[in-house]
Write a structure and sequence with these properties.
By secondary structure, this protein is mainly alpha-helical. The protein has nine helices and four strands. It has a two-stranded antiparallel ribbon with strand order 1-2. Strands 3-4 form a two-stranded parallel ribbon. About 11% of the residues have low confidence.
Length: 252
């Protein structure tokens, strides 16, 4: 059964979020980015194929606008011989990630194939990051409101939690999925809903520029780990909501 979103937003998304202007911006940026990044994408694909077995591209079913599933595209960063029973959440130091994959993830190059998802209309340039259906089933209707917004390559929560893998590395492996579903995913969903309520052409351009700047200088990203005293906790499931990024707000 397909998961249905809770589509009545407490803070309605701005008219920009579903406008022809935003779709035009997505198309123009995606085409330009693919042209500029095509040499890097070609070399990345060659490096993946040359250093590990398996395809260069990784496809995974994610939920998009109105909880409609689609095939998310990424460069493969994990060993295909790794255990298939591992968690869908990855963190820094995950043994399944290849050496080339570590570099691709560090510089966000693994996300570039999603420009094709943008051209198809499955994603936007700026929006909530798409996630797995199994995780969305475990959150409340309040958090699932974000499914009424088209997912994106980058967004408000992406900038605030830019070092998510390092953050998750502080969590014991046995608590990783619980922490992600109970604490991190709801916070990200709320941030993206708050942003969508006031989004416009200028704010989307600012998010995009902040993302590009941070790819060149990662220190420009908001350091979400400073807002979370995870190292002092022995069990991620016991984290209180106020422990998690109460200061994590993006000023755009």
């Amino acid at each position: 059964m397909t998961l249905q979103p809770h589509c009545v937003l407490e803070q309605p998304a701005s008219a920009w979020c579903n406008s022809k202007g935003k779709r035009t911006l997505d198309f123009v940026v995606a085409i330009a980015a693919l042209i500029v990044a095509s040499p890097l994408m070609f070399l990345s694909a060659l490096a993946i194929r040359a250093t590990s077995r398996g395809p260069a591209l990784f496809r995974q079913r994610r939920l998009g606008l109105n909880a409609e599933p689609f095939q998310l595209l990424k460069f493969r960063t994990m060993d295909t011989t790794a255990t298939p029973s591992g968690p869908g959440v990855t963190r820094a130091g995950d043994a399944r990630i290849t050496r080339v994959g570590q570099w691709l993830r560090k510089w966000k190059v693994d996300e570039l194939p999603q420009l094709i998802n943008v051209l198809r209309g499955e994603m936007s340039i700026v929006g909530p990051r798409p996630d797995l259906e199994e995780y969305w089933r475990q959150v409340t209707d309040v958090e699932r409101q974000v499914l009424a917004i088209k997912p994106g390559l980058t967004g408000a929560a992406t900038l605030v939690f830019s070092n998510e893998q390092d953050l998750l590395a502080q969590i014991p492996p046995s608590d990783l999925v619980v922490f992600y579903v109970r604490d991190l995913l709801p916070r990200k969903a709320r941030l993206d809903c708050e942003y969508a309520a006031r989004a416009n052409f200028v704010s989307d351009c600012r998010v995009l520029l902040k993302t590009l700047a941070a790819m060149v200088s990662p220190s420009m990203f908001h350091d979400s780990t400073e807002a979370i005293p995870l190292a002092q906790s022995r069990n991620a499931a016991n984290h209180k909501p106020n422990d998690l990024a109460e200061r994590g707000r993006l000023h755009i």
